[in-house]
Design brief:
Strands 1-2 form a two-stranded parallel ribbon. Helices cover 41% and strands 5% of the residues.
Length: 173
């Protein structure tokens, strides 16, 4: 989904190159219930020595996918989930990151003006399928500002997690 640059081990480069920052590597950008990020150290020994294809039926936050993509840059992956908002968000991150970041910056500015009021106005928004970037920005904004990054919906499919307590300085890295 997200564009991943080839990672180079800094310990194998010259001392002058070690001081330079490592190239950016795609990593999970959403917190997700049932996420595997903290378990990857234990999982690593069970992964094969080489992976060229990966099929993920429930991508969620994507910790396993991003971990494998970092280790195996040429990995071809099929990523799925039943959550249409989540899949839309991954597509927008892949296809329109600049537009998404601009919209997230707007959300953050307005959020700092009136945290609680703005959060609940965004939570109440109903967007059409055509508003891909706006839907993705809404999902990331809510995920980063809600209680514990919990993506929870009611029986009508409406997001209903309460606002979190941590003020956000950024919605993306």
């Amino acid at each position: 989904m997200a564009r991943v640059q080839r990672w180079r081990d800094p310990s194998r480069s010259s001392p002058s190159r070690r001081a330079a920052a490592a190239p950016p590597v795609a990593q999970p950008f959403l917190k997700w219930v049932g996420g595997k990020a903290q378990l990857l150290v234990q999982f690593t020994r069970f992964f094969p020595e080489q992976v060229d294809r990966y099929i993920e039926p429930f991508i969620g936050g994507g910790a396993v996918f991003f971990h494998l993509k970092r280790r195996f840059p040429h990995l071809r992956a099929v990523l799925r989930d039943n959550n249409d908002e989540l899949i839309n968000t991954y597509r927008v991150v892949r296809d329109a990151p600049e537009a998404l970041m601009q919209r997230l910056d707007e959300h953050l500015t307005r959020y700092h003006e009136d945290c609680r009021g703005y959060y609940y106005r965004v939570r109440k928004m109903e967007l059409t399928a055509a508003d891909g970037v706006e839907r993705a920005a809404r999902m990331i904004f809510l995920n980063k500002t809600c209680f514990n990054g919990l993506w929870r919906v009611n029986l009508r499919g409406r997001f209903n997690a309460p606002i979190g307590t941590q003020p956000r300085q950024s919605l993306y890295d």
